[in-house]
Write a structure and sequence with these properties.
Elements (H helix, E strand, L loop, with lengths): L2 E8 L2 E10 L4 H14 L4 E12 L1 H16 L4 E4 L3 H10 L7 E2 L2 H7 L5
Parallel strand pairs: 2-3, 3-4, 4-5
Antiparallel strand pairs: 1-2
Length: about 120
Amino acid sequence: MNLQVEMEHHRKTLIVRLSGELDHHTADHVRLQLDEAIQRGQTEHLVLSFKNLQFMDSSGLGVILGRYKLIKSKGGKMAVCDVNAAVYRLLDMSGLFKIMPIYDNEGQALSGLEVVS
């Protein structure tokens, strides 16, 4: 599996940093990890940082949209940040930016979700 997942809680926001490739080989693993972290913690909001994500396919989109629905059902907000050109193109073509904001970095994402300290 060529994907690393790093998670950090900041107040009631789960920040998830993905490194490597989010594809059909890694999507189920990421989905399970995120769902467990969201259900276990006091998570209201979710920020996905793609700073070190080199590749994503439609399976990755499914992971993102599923977590978006889960966070929305809890009354929370979700954002993505640090997106490279290739991943940006996929997210843009999918229409993802019509339902969730994109930010340049984690700090801006936290500010945009109004969860800064």
